[in-house]
Amino acid sequence: MALVVAKFGGSSVASPERIRLVANKLIALKNAGNDVVAVVSAMGKTTDELISLSETLTKNPPAREMDRLMSTGEQVSMSLMAMELEERGYRSMSFTGEQAGLYTDSRHLSAKITDIKPVRLMEAVLQGFIPVVAGFQGIDPKGDITTLGRGGSDATAVAIAYGIHADECAIYSDVDGIYTADPRVAPRAHKLDAINYDDMLELSSSGAGVLQARAVEFARKYNVVIHARSTFSDDPGTLVEGADAIMMEQAEVTGIAHDASEVKVTLRGVSDKTGVAAKLFSALAGNNVNVDMIIQNVSTDGRADITFTCPKADLPAAREVVENMLQKVSAHDYFVDESIAKVSIVGTGMKSSPGVAAKAFKALADNNVNIQMISTSPIRLSVVVSKDQMALAVRCLHTAFGLDSDSDYEEKMLSAEELAAKSKKGR
Ligand code: ASP
Ligand code: MG
Asked: Where would you tag: which of 9, 23, 25, 119 has the fewest CB atoms within 10 A of its CB?
């Protein structure tokens, strides 16, 4: 007998048939003697469709209205789920973010959770209901609806699990756990039984689409153990928990992530003077461009090239700034490369293993993968390569760091376009 939060992603509730399947899962949990709180995402691609719908009217929708619009997706799935449970003879009630007591700040589109007061949820649980909570949304101090960033239903699940002192926070999706790399890209990838918060956070931030980075951050802060597992099987998935809980020799690299959602912008012949970078990057920040990697190549004639990467979605804003800045930093010109991908090796074990970078570069060189940019943190090494070489880079690093599974694997080569589509952020 446990108190379980069970969160289901968009593909798990994409159709009435799937909603029935999820209801089976919730009912099985309940029949096994557990108290259950469900959290649901919007059905299938609903959130993307709502965004497209707004784009038919405006390029610049007020963030407050976007949040109101997007929050409706989860309200559809929560009501349908509650109806299905009632139909099957189980008492259920749906709750919006506000009704679940999920309070946030007022930063529309990426609000931070500030408090959780799940009073009504707990009342419902005590009365034997299976409450179904709309993921992804909360309420700000003014009473306006906010959303928690794309993939934010994960954050809802973790926050509710913390708020009700749940014994388990299970995050169900169409993948059966956390893998050493995306198996669609690296067929020899294997599922991890457990991963620590820091590694998971770094993998999520580096493009692994499995758990929302902010949800992992929240879980780490409040020590909520996440069980990432499949909606479509009963196999155990991967536990995301503190490093102390994981009883095994720490490998130097835990996993490899790829991200084909960024673009590279290069300003050529920028005058090599103090304050130029400050000017450029302040202007980019001011226009909400989320800059990731940066390099500067100094040339001899007092000029330098500055290259940075940013999400493809921020490219129009970046162009605006760069075109404006060309004269101010007396740059010759600029160009954009949209066919890049970032590949990251991640592992807390890297901190105590010298030579990780050398090993990575050698593996890439042996496979003729050209490195365009490099960035590091104590537990991550990222390289930018051409999109065509992304899968090769992931695979050879996976092999070099001893992550390949022994079991049979399916060697299938996806085209760069297929991979790019698959590695798009969001689920
Ligand atoms: N429906 C939202 C999204 O697609 C939230 C989520 O799925 O977790 O981003
Ligand atoms: Mg989703």
From this structure: 119
